[in-house]
Structure formats: C-alpha cells, structure tokens
Amino acid sequence: MSSIYNGNIKITLFGESHGKAIGVVVDGVNAGELIDFDYISIQMRRRRPGKNSISTSRNELDEAKVVSGVLNGYTTGAPICALIENTDIRSQDYKNFENIIRPGHADYTSYIKYRGYNDLRGGGHLSGRLTAAMTFAGALCRQILEKRGMFIGAHIYSIGKVYDKGFCNGVDDDVLIRLSKSEFPLLDNTKKDNMIKEINYYKDMCDSIGGSIECAINNVPVGVGEPIFDGVESKVSSLMFAIPGVKGIEFGAGFKVVGMSGSENNDEYIVKNEKIYTNSNNHGGILGGISSGMPIIFRVAVKPTPSIGKEQCSLNIKTKKEELLLIRGRHDPCIAVRAVPVVESLASIAILDLMKGAGMI
Amino acid sequence: MSSIYNGNIKITLFGESHGKAIGVVVDGVNAGELIDFDYISIQMRRRRPGKNSISTSRNELDEAKVVSGVLNGYTTGAPICALIENTDIRSQDYKNFENIIRPGHADYTSYIKYRGYNDLRGGGHLSGRLTAAMTFAGALCRQILEKRGMFIGAHIYSIGKVYDKGFCNGVDDDVLIRLSKSEFPLLDNTKKDNMIKEINYYKDMCDSIGGSIECAINNVPVGVGEPIFDGVESKVSSLMFAIPGVKGIEFGAGFKVVGMSGSENNDEYIVKNEKIYTNSNNHGGILGGISSGMPIIFRVAVKPTPSIGKEQCSLNIKTKKEELLLIRGRHDPCIAVRAVPVVESLASIAILDLMKGAGMI
Amino acid sequence: MSSIYNGNIKITLFGESHGKAIGVVVDGVNAGELIDFDYISIQMRRRRPGKNSISTSRNELDEAKVVSGVLNGYTTGAPICALIENTDIRSQDYKNFENIIRPGHADYTSYIKYRGYNDLRGGGHLSGRLTAAMTFAGALCRQILEKRGMFIGAHIYSIGKVYDKGFCNGVDDDVLIRLSKSEFPLLDNTKKDNMIKEINYYKDMCDSIGGSIECAINNVPVGVGEPIFDGVESKVSSLMFAIPGVKGIEFGAGFKVVGMSGSENNDEYIVKNEKIYTNSNNHGGILGGISSGMPIIFRVAVKPTPSIGKEQCSLNIKTKKEELLLIRGRHDPCIAVRAVPVVESLASIAILDLMKGAGMI
Amino acid sequence: MSSIYNGNIKITLFGESHGKAIGVVVDGVNAGELIDFDYISIQMRRRRPGKNSISTSRNELDEAKVVSGVLNGYTTGAPICALIENTDIRSQDYKNFENIIRPGHADYTSYIKYRGYNDLRGGGHLSGRLTAAMTFAGALCRQILEKRGMFIGAHIYSIGKVYDKGFCNGVDDDVLIRLSKSEFPLLDNTKKDNMIKEINYYKDMCDSIGGSIECAINNVPVGVGEPIFDGVESKVSSLMFAIPGVKGIEFGAGFKVVGMSGSENNDEYIVKNEKIYTNSNNHGGILGGISSGMPIIFRVAVKPTPSIGKEQCSLNIKTKKEELLLIRGRHDPCIAVRAVPVVESLASIAILDLMKGAGMI
C-alpha cells in the first residue's frame, strides 16, 4: 500500500468506504497561508454524492473536520489533518454478494494482494470515496496557487458520444474560475441536456457510461517541472492514475500527435509586449517536462462505473466457482461527472508540489 | 533537475548529448543475478542511431562500459554504473542557430529554468540521447523479469496514418520475444513497407512524423502495484513521460472507455484449470492500480521529431527578437521507431521496482 | 515540516499539544497481522504523563482510537490511523509567558521558521506530546517483530550521576521482555531509589535533570540494513533525533572506541553449534551498517527538561527585549524516564522498515 | 543496497575498492554555481592516502574526472558525475586471506546479505575508499555554502588518550577556514606531536587506534531543519553513519547533558546589536531539529582501523571453521585523521540539502 504521496507537498490518505471515517494529512504547506474553508466546502460539495438524480443516492455531507495544522485560519506549518465521517453506510448492500468479486473493481486484485484481509465492503480503502479526501487536500493547495494568480479548471469533455467543446490552445482565466465552481462544468452549456440524456439512457438500462475530462492550468510560470523523472507530465499523470477509473491521459495535442508532422505539431515562438508565447499550444504548456508559461492542458479518460445493475458473470473468490452477480447498491451511472473536481484537485497538488520543490513558492 | 528515479530500483542518469559521455547508475538490484551483456547490447543496438536511412546519421556505437557492481558476470548487490561514450559529436551543427530556441524542444523552458547555464548543444542533458542510458538500465532489469517468466514486448502501433494490428486482449509470449529483438517491431510485418513509405514521405519534405507504440507485459503475477499513489498505471505513466516526445498514455481500452458502457467495459471473470482469468482485457491487466495476472497493455503517443529541416519562425533567446530558424543537424524523421526499446525498458523498470517493493523479487 | 517518515514503513504524525487531538497514520504494514491493542495500551501507558510524582501532572488517558486499517483485529494492508484526544489542556499556563521564548525549547527556532504562525502553546506540533503517537506506531511495529522472535527492550541507563548496569555485550530475551513492560525499567532494580532521589533533588529545586537510555534488540537476523546511506545506524539515529531532547547516540562501544586499539575493539568470530557469533560485541550488532546477528545495542543522551520552575533570562520575541521568564506549567523533572518506550518504539520502526525493504518481512 | 542519498541534493555513489574506478553523481545543485575545482582537489588531497607515514601506503592520486553537469566552470543544473580511477590496487594482498572474514569489517555481514556475490576485495563497495567520492560531492556543496558566508571546519578532537581543545560554545570563521585546509587539523597545534606519537605507538605494535572528530558550521541562518523527522540532527547523524567506522555522534553538550540540570543546560537568550544569540551553546546550534543561528557543533567517534597486522581469531566463511588471520595489506593506523574532510563534506551536504528543501538556496 502506498497511500502517501511523498513530494514536496506530502499527502497521506486513510480510511475505508464503510469505516468510521476517512481522512487526509497534508504536510509541507508553508506557514502563514490564510485558508478559506468555504472554498474547500464548495469543492467537496461538487464531488459529494447524493445531490441529484445522476449521482449515487448515498448521501454524505462530507464535512471535513480539521484536526490540526491551522490556527486562527492560517496554516501553522504543521501537518493539516482533516477527518470526514462516513454517515450513510449501508453495508448490507454488500452482504448480498459477499465473496463475489465485482468485475471492473479492485475486489479480485486486492483480495489476492492483501490475502483476503482487506476490507472489501464498498471497495474499502480503494473506494472512490477516498477522492473526498483528495479533494480536501487539493482544494487547500489550489487556493495557494490561485492567490498567486494561477487558475485551475476542468470541464466534462465528453460523456458517451456527446462532446463538449475543447480548450484548444488556451482558455481565459474567467472561464476557469466559472468551471471551477460548477457542479456540471461545461464550456458549451447547451451540451448539458444531451449529456444528461446520455447518462439517463444508460442509467435506465441499469448500466453506466464512460466519459472524459479536460483540465487547464493558467499562468504557471516558465520553469516548473523537474526533468528527467519529475517532469510536469510525470507528476500529473502519476497523480491522475490515483483516481479510480482513470485509464488514459494526454497532454496538449495528445494522441493526435500520432498523425501530425513536425511542422504541424511544433508550436512557433512569438514575442508580444516583450513576453514570449507560442502561437499554438500542441505542447500543452510543457516542453521537456518543464512548463512553458502557456496553459497546461490535459485530458483524462474515465471508465464507466463498474458497479452496474445488470447481471454479470463472476466468481466466488473463496470457492473459485463461477457465479452470477447482481449489484443492488447505490451507484453513479457516470463517475466522470463527479471526478471533475478531483482532477482539478490532484492537478493543483502536482503544480504546488513542483513549485515548492523549485523554491518558487 | 530530478535525474534520479528513486524507487525500490533506483536509476541515476547523467551526461549530455555533446559531453564526453552519458551514463547510468542502477541501484537496488539483488546480488546474484547473472547478467547477459549481449542481451543488453541487442537492446541498445535496437535504439542506437545511424543504422539505416530512417534514423539520424549520427553514428554512435553505444557500447556501455560497466564500471561497477558486477563481478564474474553476476550482480554484487552494489550499484551498477555504466558509461556510454559520445563519439560522433558535431557541435558545429548547433553553432548555426546558437541562441535560437528550437520549437518543440526544451530549449526555451530549460534556458529559463536553468537561467542560461544549461548545455543547449543537442539538448544537453534533456537530449533523447539519454534514452541510451535508460535502455541499458531497462535491459538489465527486464532480463531479471524474463528469467522469472515475465515477457515484455512492444511494437510500432502506428506511424502517421499507417496502423499495425493491436494486441487486443492479449498476446503470446513468443510474439513478445520476437518483438523484443526486432529493430522494426510489428505484429503484422506486411505493414512495414507502408510505414517506411510514410516516414520517407515526410523525410523527403524535410519534415517528420508522429507515431504510437503499444507495449505488453505477460505473466506479471496478481498483486503487483501499490495503491493509492503507486499503482501500476502511476508508476508506468510517470516513467513513460520521462521519454522525450511522449504526450499521451492509455492502458487497456484506454480512451475508448469514454464511449463504452459499464456492461461492455467490465471484464467478466472465468475459471480455467483452477486459474482465474477475465474473458476480455479492457482493464489492461490492472484493476485498482494492482496487476490482475492478465497481460498489462498500454499505448503511448510519440510526437513527431521537433528538429525538422524546414524553416520555422522562432526567436533569439538573448535578444528576444523573432528570427527564422533552419535546422541542418542529423535527425530521425520519426522518433517513435527508436523509442520502442526505450518504452520496453522503462516498463521493465516499473514492474521490477514494484515487485521488489512488494518483496516479490 | 517533515512529519512523515517515508521508509518502507511510513509514519505520518499530526496534531498539536493544545489542539483537539494528535494522531498518527502507519502505512506499509502487511495485511494479516493480528494486532494486540492491549499491548499497545501498555506501551502508551508507560509513556503517558500523570502517573506519579516524578512525571508531569498533566493527566492524559492517551487512549488511541483506531480509525482505519484494521478489521476484525487484523491489519488490512490499508493505512492505520489512530487518534489520541487531548483532554487535559491548560493553555492558560502558557498565557503568562506569551511571546517569551523558553530557553532550551524550539520556541525561538520554530517562531522564525514558521514566521510566527506556528502554534506555540505547549510547543505545538513540536511538543513531546507527539511521542504518544510515535509510541502507538512503534508498539504496533514491535509486536510484528516480536511475533518473529525479535525482542526490543530499553532501560534507564543513567539519571544525573546515578548509573544502572549496562547491557555490555548482550542480554537475555527474558530481560528485554521484562524491561519492555516496566514503567521504570532498570537492569539493577536496586538503583531505583537513588534515581528517584536524584530526580526529586532537582524537582525540589524547581529544576530538572538529564539522563540516558540504553536499548537492545535481540535476534535481528544477519543482513538487515542498507549501506551506504541506509545502514542500521543511519536509520536508528535519524529516528532517535526525532525525539525531543535527544542530543547524542552511540552504538556498541560507542564513544569508548576513541581510546581503544584495533585489537581491543575488533570482535573476533567464533562458531558455536554451527552458528557464527562474535565473542564480544563492541560493534553493537552492526558492521558496515548491516546487522551481524548479535544484539543491536545503542545508548541515547536525553537532555534535562528545558521547562523548569526557576527564573531564567530570556526575551520577548515580538519586542526583541530581554525579559525574565518564570514557567509555572506542569513538567517532568526528568524526561528520560518517559522517553524509554519511545526509544523502543522508534527502534522497532527502524528495524521493521529495514526488514520490509529487504523483503525479509 | 542504498547508495543513493535522496534528499533535495541527491548523491549517488558507485564503485569498488578494487574495481576500475569509483564515482559519484550529484543531482539537484542549482544551475549557475561557479565551481572551484582546485578547492575540490584540496579537499580530496586532505583525504587521500599515501601522503605520509601515518596513512596507508596505497598511493592514489584521487584525481576526479568530471563527466557531466559543468560547462565553462559553471553548474548547468544537470547531474554532475565525477569518476575517480583506482590506480594502485594490490588485490593479491587479499588473496592471502580469501574467505577469511576480517573482524571489525563488513566482510561477514555483507557476505550473508549479498549471499557471497559481493566483491570482498578491499571491502568492495563498502570500502573506506568510497569516502573519496563523498569528499568530491561534499567539497562541491560546501563551496556553495561558503560563498554565502557559511563556514564548515572540523578538527581531530582526540586520538587515543591525546585530546585537542574543543570548540566549546563556538569558534571564529577564520579558525574554520584554517582547519578546512589543514591535513592534520587541530585547534591547538602543540598537540600534534603527541598525537603522532600515539599513532606511531600503535602502528609499531601492528595495531591501530581510535579517535574523535569535532565539526562546526558557522553562520547557518535560523530556520534550517525540518522537524519532526528531518531535523538537523537526524540529517547530519544519518549521513555521518555512512562513514565507515563512525560509532557515535553527539551535538552541542552531547552526552554531557546526561549529568546536567535544566538550569545548567538551558542556553539563555540575549540580544546584541538587535540580533538574538544564546549566551552559551549547549544546544549545539539546534533546537527542535531547527538551526538557531548559533554555530552547529557536533562530535563523532571513529573506531580504530579494523585491519591490523596482529594475528586474530576468525573463521573461513565457506567452511565455517575457525582460522587464524594475519592481514598484511596497507592500512592507516588511525582512520580518524583522514576522516576529517569526510565529516566536513557530509555535514556540508546535510546543510545544503536542508536549505535547498526550505527554498533558502
């Protein structure tokens, strides 16, 4: 188990889906940062379940109780621990299929790895519920960046066959600020209805649907990122794959570079008001693992919720006999929606971490 | 700078494209592993330049001189250092455009980060040349895996518009062994001519072309990978983005999950001869960051070589004035080809690292 | 701040002396270890204050509430979080000398480092109170070692001028077991009265007294410790200096080697019942940073409690004017006594960490 | 094996005593530092053997060949690799006692740990010879500190029964500068003759003698050190025990605190010219793991050279039979003398590392 992110900002996660509480310890934040806890609540509310028809009906308030590291609203330099209680647990939902490993989940792999001792209820420590703790940590880090003029925002790039517009080469700060407060963030809000329809289509079939998220970070100064092994892409990707369900990531032009020529893909330099820009942003704000000053842009692919209400072939891990499985728990039909603030949060941690390491914050 | 990969296997890279030598130190390899240096030479030859018309004419023998850590052919437990001399340097190629930052390279970002003190000749320490040292380290690690029955192989998945077949749900060990020795590895060798044509088309236009690589690792036991932050995807992706030019990575069904339903994407479990499998492999051999025993499959997008013979708009970093740039150096028209053994190498390091950390090797 | 020990066993500490709670997250413990929480309580009781006349009258029950990582008494492989509430806080004790930095404490250094934002009440996060959380983590780790036959025990080696006997070349397992349950552990119990007298002598003068602790670990197998930088001495010493007040550490013959000749200091090898021993143990069970199979023996020097009831010259950190300081809080006259289980705890973490890293546990 | 120090400054050591070369890679040094290689040579010469009658007659020039990371005399931000060739090897000296494990060396422990595969000739990778590479790295780091007004100097504190004066509460910069260039550094040079006599006394008896070293670092600003786990004492001690033969370390009053009262040991604060000092320095410049601005002072105990010309009881590791051993190699009669620049070097690395991590350099 490696529930500690040990960068220059250090994040320790703990807790299980059906335990008393989950939580997080954030170490390495400078002393003297005024923390806006309402801001953190907004981010946690964006992620929390039970808000509407397209998210699980598990209803968690997700109030983070700060145990340490903050005095009179300011960080003290000591580790910040936050506890988030689990209040709406229905472990009996899992009794029905005890010992039946759920396809698409980590039940099988974690059962073998932890030799049957791990808490399988609701995914235990590997549950998506832990992303609440990630969001707390990220919302704390991102306001430190925002105070210094860096803005992080993501939108639902696609759900099933329905696509939003893309960031293309860049995006205004205002748009990022708007996105970062929205519970269904889109560049083109007219796409919302079709996306909801797409989700409900699968929900009505007791099924789920995948999606993708696009994230941008504006105004990161030139020079962030530590090649060779801790470049921006390495740091960001490593953190994104900590989100359950993420199966791919691409920066800038991403997989499109595969069919591009060098003359198309290279972003040429221009000087405007004595500042250096590129006139396109296929490089996604990163060259050689180092930020270029252009918006850092990436997209992640999020798989459909593995918990579905359809009957699936599976097996009993104890008897090793095949058995049919019907999951009756409460689940999101599309986890990509609630993953948006988590993506923003982990991106914030990556950037703050790299800037701290470089002595830039 | 973070030229040290500090896992359970530790890799230290050093050297510059136009310096005396590059090199690598591999620490953490168990004592008593018999090392096949011919095997390492084969891998380094697959990567080395100057072999044919579709690679740069810079002719480097890339003979690795082992300085430490090996006695009578066996690892001693001490760090293994290998030096690779630079023999065919033509720094004058870079004189022509001194101070002109090359689009698509790290010239600008590293110049700012290192305040003008970094060695820009040929990309300095951020040159693709360092992948020779990565290949040494990886070839050393992968034979330790192979001796235990794990096989790593990659193929050119696409160049421009020309696509090879894909691994789909899995691949035979024999195929991986064949691929891992090939200098132009393909599943369907009939695609080679069209791919070469595609490359030469761009080469003839003084341009370059992107490509993608697909890699599989067979027979990794269940239980490798340390969630939450050091899952297989996190480790592998973090290392892949250490390769210059990689802009995207996807595991299993990858970005296709975006349009898939849960019932399509979930891989159902079956039991064959008392062993547990999934009847498809959309999860790419990884669930919850932990290996499932199925082949680990991923694809990376490699951008077109940024060094092209076409005139480009750029600027002089000292004067901050725009200038035209014409690069006359020796460059690969498609770096994806030579990146294949590098992808395999870093994948090997990731898996050995995780297995070592889990006490499995 | 670096409140995370990031070894193969990972320890995250959080909390402040006068906050709601302190706590610890232990990550990296294998799944399937049956945890004896009574055992942990015994260790925490040995350390806890308020028990008798020679410890501070601050009365903390120090009951650790386990939040995560344990199911049905067994570790799950997930991080184990324990919370310890602060129940007997008297912050008003600190009001009297607000802004007056206490000599011998970290008030001044932490005030400057954290630019006045840190919680100074009772030392905040740098308080000796955090050793309760260390003891929880250590008591958890040491029972994993004990189940495998390794025993850890320490005794008060000296208080002021009164010395206990020393371990010399080694010690029986039974003695270590006895020591590890004692609240005033001594090899020679007849020394207790004189030591208590020594403590009370200084207590009566509103002063405090230093002491030293000797610790032994029996039956650590040969081969534990990772030279060059993570040898047993490096790991153990690095952790011991995390205990407030420790100012020195020595292994085996320690500072006595300074006056010894090689022929005196070298421990000669002997074979008994086909097992290899040394006939003396000046090397303290460690050669080249690697355990030799002989008892690992070390001593630490613990300074006298800096909080004393005598008037001291100091200064007001805000006005930078010299001021007299009289501390009226509740303090141990000799912190060495309560530090014994902390020393054992951190030693246990060091050994478990190294064994885990080497795949030996 | 853990031959990488992975701080904010990263040090990778490689090589064996009887291999072709040893070397070091230093990563994390800022770009733009002008390196004085003569300065490095001076430090390496202080450490190198073969200079005089009281050091081994193995004659190594110890010229470090810089392979990477420096351009036109300035650091480039890329890792700096230096190679030091082994030129005067006499492996036949070790033939005589092949398979006989030398008391006081790591022969036995490393043989077991590395299952007989490690290079035992001259201690292999665990040889004191590796301290040449440490000295290169340290001499590089310390000049970065010196340029910023911090001075590091150590002296031979004692050899056998002969003691130099001590630093007491502090020392002038000039003295540290003088010490840091001396090959037999003493505060009181009149002690030299007696010390040499002491060494020769043991040398003439085919024996060796222990010693101790005292080191001071002046002008480290307040606030260096990351409690709880990376305080100055933790960092420094962890590195000191990487030096073969070091068996103890103490800071400030060190083991003397054991017999001191709080009122004696506490250093009171005073204000002079608006700067804050303590009027004594029992805390050795460190409170709560954080530098106080006072000189950082510590002492290490160095054991007598384990290689002695006297017959010793030992055993053949292959036959497990006891055998007599007579070592005829070339050895220092007192390794403490040549360890002085190594102590200074590692102290420099520790301080630079902590300052870099705190964004102070």
What is the residue-mean pLDDT of chain A, rounded to a whole number? Answer: 94
CATH level-1 class of chain A: Alpha Beta
User: Distance between the terminal alpha carbons of chain A, to the nearest Å?
Assistant: 30 Å
Largest beta sheet of chain A, briefly? 5 strands, antiparallel
| Helix content estimate of chain A | 25-40%
What do these coordinates show?
The structure is a homotetramer of 361-residue chains. Chain A has 361 residues and is an alpha+beta fold. Chain A has a single domain (90-357), classed as Chorismate synthase AroC (Chorismate synthase, AroC fold). In chain A, 26% of the residues lie in helices and 23% in strands. Chain A has 9 helices and 18 strands. In chain A, the strands form 6 sheets. In chain A, strands 1-2-3-7-4 form a 5-stranded antiparallel β-sheet, covered by helices on one side. A 5-stranded antiparallel β-sheet of chain A has the order 9-8-10-16-11. In chain A, strands 5-6 form a two-stranded antiparallel sheet. In chain A, strand 17 (312-316) and strand 18 (321-325) form a beta hairpin. In chain A, helix 1 crosses helix 4 (131-147) and helix 7 packs antiparallel against helix 9 (335-357). Chain A is globular. Chain A starts with a strand and ends with a helix. The model of chain A has no long low-confidence stretch (mean pLDDT 94). Chains in contact: A-B, A-C, A-D, B-C, B-D, C-D. At the A-B interface, helix 3, helix 7, strand 11, helix 8 and strand 12 of A face helix 3, helix 7, strand 11, helix 8 and strand 12 of B.
